[in-house]
Amino acid sequence: MSGPKVVELRQEGWRDGITALKQIIADLESGELEPIQSGVLVLMGKDGGIETFAFGPRGDDVTSLGLLRIGERIIVDSALGEE
Questions:
Q1: Highest taxon of the source (predicted)?
Q2: What distance in Å separates the CA atoms of residue 80 and residue 74, rounded to the nearest whole number?
């Protein structure tokens, strides 16, 4: 069993939330992105409200928490210019 694949944090061209989500769906449907085993989505509305979603066949609480931590590490590394 292989571990998670770490990819570049995409930022540029992803500022419009609806367009970004549609592009992710298109990438999944085209096969550019691998099928989802576990996913976590955190959204903040313009009034500061937070919505969280966990999904996929392995979208249980523990896996979702771990996935959030991995995502956090990727964002921190990207912000610090590390690879």
A1: Bacteria
A2: 10
